[in-house]
Amino acid sequence: MPLIALLAGLGCGILLAAVTLGLLGAVLEAKAVVDGAHAVARGAAGVLVIGALLGWGSGLPALETITGMVEQEPLGGPVLSLLLMAALAVPLRVDRSTAADWRSSLLYVPGWMLASAALILMVTPGRAPTGTEWVTPVRFSLAVCGGIGGRALGQALQSGLSNREALTWPGALTYGMLTFVCGAAGLVNLWQRGGLWVASDPVLRGGMAGAWLAWTADWLMPRRRDKLGAALTAAATLLLVLAAVKPA
Amino acid sequence: MAEQSSDPWRVAWRIATSNELLVVLLVGIALSLTLTAWIPQRPASDVDYARWLSQMQARYGQATSVLRTLGLFDITSSVILRGLLAIVAGILVLRIAEGIDRLRQRRETEEVERPEGDWQKLDDWDFTNLLEILRGRRYRVDRASAEAQVDRWPWSQVLPLAAQAGALLLLMGLLLFQVFGWRATDVILQEGERVSLRQGASWMALSEDGELRHDPGIVGFLGERGPGLVVEAVGAEGESLELLLRPDAEPSNDLRIALTGDTYFAIPEAELVVRLTPRSEEAYTRTDVQIYGSPTGEIIAERVTEQGGHGVFEVADVALTFTAAPYARATAVHNPGRLPSAAGLAILAIGLIGSLVWPERRFWVRESGDLVEGAGPLPTWMYLEGEDV
């Protein structure tokens, strides 16, 4: 556990530094500083990815050899999902603006918040969960969707506060993957249980369905309403993250 | 595209088929369903309701009555949520009708539209080569002299239409289940036992090897298992004694008992009452056996079965034989909307994912001297320097 906590703390700190550098570069009107912030954020993404893989891998018997080499105890609970979401929420390439823009720091805010939440859960006494029950395909899929949704949120925040047109692919990918996951889960339940929500986990029933509907609304929202669209993306991402981290 | 008109029916139609209205409804339904993940919902079985309610009162205190009044303990059955779903279904019907009409109109219209927006230079493209590449990427290219209109018709219109039709089919399936379907939960089944459901209209059984069998018209599945016994009693003369589980039950020479808690049965011919208490909820746990005289009520003997529930005891000239017969809690679901729901869900998912991959987008390209220009929402790969990919 200590290694993953170290990685989470390191990733969280680097992301905070990236946000700070982005703001500083905008104040000083130094594009090089802003570019440095983007490079630093990519480093944070790499650190968080390693932490997330170690965390999820600690719950898989097939990867016991690797996690055993770093003396990693099985980690479980929302921490795993938060780490993976934080890693995926950091964009690896950004638009090269001709001017230093403080809004580019907003791209890293969702990742930083997710990493901070994971770190707080890990270091708070008595709240660091262990165990392998969290490592399931549905939980993993929700975490991946939540991470890419966090990236979409960063893009939406940046575009909502500027006149820049947002990239649409992170939101489209999140929605597409979430549709696939929810559809597959629904079909399996219909086959095995005879009903869409019969005997299903309340979190999966309510949380996933609510998050999917919110993302559907986000997809339907006319793009001309930037600020309202950004607010809807934020609400949809929040619902998805909550569904991904809420225990059964 | 639509004419500006003060006709109230046209205004009502535009509002009803607008994305904004659908967004508002979906957000409302999303919030309602999300609440069910955070606020415990009342159990389907009335048997568990009293215990569940006391747990909620312990958890929420004085707020329990407020939450009950607001209907937050049974959101999926609330009038508001069902009303929202009904409105969405109505809107989907209108949108599907409009979509079919647009598809028909566009199919009949062959002329190329005027481009929207300004023309932009597209460096390093050959016009003929670009059109070939676009056709290779499954775009429809309508060419008029040196200008071409490019889109993904008809799939860009068919796929969203399919998604809406799938959603409507899914809602119909849910409605069929709500109106004509039923669900029986916590059906106690012991191995070798068959239980009738819905006044004999259906049945479920648990075979000797623990396999669930049921009426083909239902879906059945097993839940948790618990301890159970088969009891037989033999008298001093070797005769089989009758056993009585309840005063109004038919006497039986062998009793099947699911030990869901303390259980009593009587042996009238021997004037004995037997109390069975499982030591845990595991399927093959030990069971405490207390034998009382009737009608005095004095304890005559106390025994414990072996691990697994087996035991043979001789008490007051009666030989009691206990054999393990664990029970299982089963659920039976009759859902006439199962097939429409599954089909609707599949079509909805395919339509949505297809719409994301092939969005409805129309753009134009033209040859202007040695240059190639584009107008409208051009794909990013057509630019020499793309944005974040």
Task: Describe the fold and architecture.
The complex is a heterodimer of chains A (248) and B (389). By secondary structure, chain A is mainly α. Chain A is built from nine helices and no strands. Chain B has 389 residues and is an alpha+beta fold. Among the domains of chain B are: 113-152 and 361-389; 182-334, no CATH class. Chain B is 34% helix and 29% strand. Chain B has eight helices and 19 strands. In chain B, the strands form five sheets. Chain B has a five-stranded antiparallel beta sheet, with helices on one face. In chain B, strands 10-9-16-15 form a four-stranded antiparallel beta sheet, with no helix packed on it. Chain B has a four-stranded antiparallel beta sheet with strand order 11-12-13-14, with no helix packed on it. In chain B, a hairpin with an 8-residue loop joins strand 12 and strand 13. Chains A and B meet through helix 7, helix 8 and helix 9 of A and helix 2, helix 7, strand 8, strand 17 and helix 8 of B.
Q: Which whole number gives the mean pLDDT of chain B?
A: 87
Record field, number of beta strands of chain B: 19
**Number of H- or I-type helical stretches of chain A:** 9
Query: Can you write the helix and strand succession of chain A as a string?
Result: HHHHHHHHH
The percentage helix of chain B is 25-40%
Q: What Rg of chain B do the Cα atoms give?
A: 35 Å
- What's the end-to-end separation of chain B, in Å? 33 Å
Radius of gyration of chain A: 19 Å
Query: What's the shape of chain A?
Result: flat
Largest sheet of chain A: none
**Shape summary of chain B:** elongated
The proportion of residues in beta strands of chain A is under 5%
Low-confidence stretches of chain B: 385-389
